[in-house]
Amino acid sequence: SVYYSNNGGANFVARTGIVAWGGAVHPSVSGAGIVVNGSDAFTTMDSFASTAPLGLSAFAAAEGGFTAVAINADSPNEVIVGGAKGGIYKTTNYNPLGAGVTWTKLSTPIKSILIRDVGIAFRNDRSVYYAITFGGQTSFTSESTIGFYRSLDAGTTWTGFSNGIYPCTIGWKLLPDVSSPNTSFFAGLWAGGLFKLADYD
User: Fold this and answer.
1) Quick one: pLDDT at residue 118?
2) In 124-166, where do the E strands start and end?
3) CB of 18 within 8 A of CB of 2?
4) Is the dihedral of CA 20, 133, 84, 31 positive or negative?
5) How much is the pLDDT for 137?
6) Are the C-beta atoms of 80 and 129 separated by less than 8 Å?
7) Closest Cα to residue 161, out of 173, 171, 176, 172?
8) Which helix (H) or strand (E) holds 61?
9) Taking the CA of residue 67 as centre, how many other CA atoms within 13 Å lie in the half-sphere pointing to its CB?
10) What residues are paired with 181 via a beta bridge?
11) Residue (of 66, 4, 75) closest to 35 by Cα position
12) Cα(31)–Cα(36) distance, integer angstroms
């Protein structure tokens, strides 16, 4: 579920009926954000008291649902969503009301693996995308592409960058460093500890 607090975390209220496999808060519109789950991505204007679908349902069955979402803090109309079978979807016309949002599935080298988290940075006048992948013990296949991935051109081309990450390259969470969110991230690994990524390309 989604839990909501309006008093700095002293108390939380469950937003019943909302299943969330991933979520992102709008960087500049109070009460706005996105959650993703097995059927679609959903937007809200009232801190998830109510939601509206964002039009990803056509991809849901083939993708196995949606597991991660990121909003570009410098250009909030740009959103990427990761799927349970490795797909990454992009829109550049997101708005918190959900009207007229259209999606494109990006071409990536990621196969047969769940996108556990995604991130967007904006530097050198371009959007930089990140994706980390995860699979439980029973969901890997011989084609699974485990690891960390980056696109320096807003999703057109992707490369892996797991070198130097030991002992595990299975990602769990990717969070921007609040002091330098466009060049620094913290990455939590599955039984592999916590890493800090400094990226200036």
Assistant:
1) 97
2) 126-134, 148-151, 159-160
3) yes
4) positive
5) 55
6) yes
7) 171
8) helix 57-63
9) 22
10) none
11) 66
12) 16
List CB contacts of 61: < 8 A, sequence separation 6 or more. none
Q: Report the distance separating Cα 2 and Cα 18, nearest Å.
A: 6
**Radius of gyration over every alpha carbon of the chain, rounded to an integer in angstroms:** 16
As a residue count, the chain comes to: 201
User: How would you list the strands of the sheet with 148-151, edge to edge?
Assistant: 114-123, 126-134, 148-151, 159-160
Comparing C-alpha atoms, which of 73, 2, 67 is closest to residue 41?
67
* Full pLDDT tens readout for the chain, 201 residues: 899 999 999 999 999 889 999 999 999 999 999 999 999 999 999 999 999 999 999 999 999 999 999 999 999 999 999 999 999 999 999 999 999 999 999 999 999 889 999 999 999 999 999 999 886 555 667 778 878 899 999 999 999 987 777 777 777 888 899 999 999 999 888 777 888 888 988
What distances in angstroms separate CA 135 from CA 51, 140, 165, 168, 172, one per listed residue? Answer: 29, 6, 17, 12, 10
Q: Using an 8 Å Cβ cutoff, are 144 and 199 in contact?
A: no
Whole-model pTM above 0.85? yes
Residue the block writes with tokens 């998830």: 48
pLDDT of residue 173: 87
Pair 72, 78: CB distance under 8 Å: yes
